[in-house]
Each structure stands twice: as C-alpha cells, then as structure tokens.
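Quick one: structure tokens for this chain, please?
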Amino acid sequence: MDKLSKENKEYLIKRNTNEYEVVIGLEVHAQVLSESKLFSTSPTKFGSEPNTQVSLVDAAFPGMLPVINEFCIKQAIKTGIGLNAKINKKSIFDRKNYFYADLPQGYQISQYKNPIVGEGTVTLDLPNGEKKIGIERLHLEQDAGKSIHDVDPNNTLVDLNRSGVALMEIVSKPDLRSLDEVNSYIKKLRSIMRYLGTCDGNMQEGSLRADVNVSVRKKGSKELGTRCEIKNVNSIKFMQMAIDYEANRQVDVLEEGGSIDQETRLFDTKKNETRSMRSKEDAHDYRYFPDPDLLPLELDENFINDIKKIFQNYQMKKRKDL
C-alpha cells in the first residue's frame, strides 16, 4: 500500500495488477459554544452530574414548545463566514423521526433541504501545496442524550444532559484523498472554529466528532464507488484507522469479484475493524417534515452584515494582538 508522501499526494491501495484510489468525505458534528441549548435555557457545562441540565423542553414533556436560541444562530452564521460559505437568508427546521432510548421526543429537530449555510471551502496547507476542500452545507440540529451501559449490569441508564445541545453538522464534498488530508482537514476546521469562538473542538469531551464516508475506485476512474458511512468517530487517530481498515476491506471485496453494499458501519477501536450496523435496504425512513412548532428562520441582510462586521473587527484585533 502506498500512502501519502511529500512527492505523491495520492493514497493508493495495490492489489495484484490493480491500483485503487480512496475517496473520503466527512460529516463533522461540532458542538456550538453556547451557555444554553438550542431550544431551551438549560446549561451546557461538560462534566455535570447526570440529568442535572435538563428542562421540561429537553425531556419532551407534553405541551413544551421549543424556542430558538438566537446566539446559536449567530454562531452558525459566523462559522459559515469562516468557511467562505453562502449564508442562506431562509432556512427551515425539520423533524427527523426515529426511535432511540436517549431521544425523548421520538424525533430530532434538524435541518434537511434548507440549511442555514450552503456551499463553502476549506483550504488545506499540505507538504505538496494547497488544496481546497469543498463544503456542501452546514446545518443546525439538536443533540440526543447518552445511553450508559457499563454502570449497572442489568440496566441501561440514560443521561439527558446533552439532549438539546446545539450542533453544527458540517458536510464536506468527497474531495479528501488520503489519511493526511483528513488529519489536516479536521485540524484546520477545528482551528477555524476555535479562532471564531464557535466550538471548542474538544474531541475527548465529544464536542467534535465525525461520520466518515469511504469509497474506493480504480485509479483513473472518474466515477465514484459505492460509499460506506462509519458513524460517530471521535478522534483523528480513530478516523485514520477506520478509513485504512474500511478502504482495504472494500478493495478485498472487489478483488474477490464481489460488490460493495451501501451501508452504515461502526468502528470497533479495540479490534481495529468496522462492522455492519445497517444496510441501505434497512436504513431508517426519517420522514422529514417541517417542525410545526418552529417558523422558517428568515434572516435579513442587515442581520448577516452585522455578524460579518463583528467577524472583520475580530480579525483586525487579532492581527494587532499578534
């Protein structure tokens, strides 16, 4: 296997007489740096006692209505500006319907077809020069709670402290081609958000994690291969290990005459392998529809320009401090 070197920006896997190129895209989940949650006034302090930062809204008590946190909106717009992305004047919050024990509403409030931020770019500084990675979108959504399996041998416990915490999901285009580029991209994204004060980027606290999309294709092919998504990887090292294993797994399948099934997979950090979570045929039908409790989010030019001015003034101050 030939990995990225200073002279060669390609990450190729060789099998017999064939060479395969690895194609990678990331869906990064970044926790918004905010003192309160996306739709409630509950605090967001990390490390608090379980279920001590939960309002009736977060626990989905009947009759409770979400109220948008304006500061989280501004943080998302600021991040979009930092990603050289289009800020959409109209965006819509949708309900993404699925059942999970730590999702008390039975749905997640997210954005689907109408996100708050559109296309942008991140420029990577690599040993062999600059490379631009396309950003497809940034949308806001609320986090779920946490299921705990290792405290009581007979029961699963649920901590709702994270329920309702604001997340920015930043979706890249499939422009990444190597483990080093993934490393550089995550670090650049984290440095941008830390610089802007929109996310602290602490992966050990779950503030930054990613779903990794991996596919392979024969070198020279212009068509993308069938991708597999690896869910919730919470460190750069584990992302690289998961990509390396998954890309080689897919090549082995193709070399044996098989085909890749589009599916969602999990990465086992102890065994250093990915395993199937659900196939395309078994994937959830999330039944997205606009949340009836939240009006479309409409921003005027002055609101966006005021945030841009704050961003520009902040940049000027930073340069003076340096």
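The chain has a mean pLDDT of 92.
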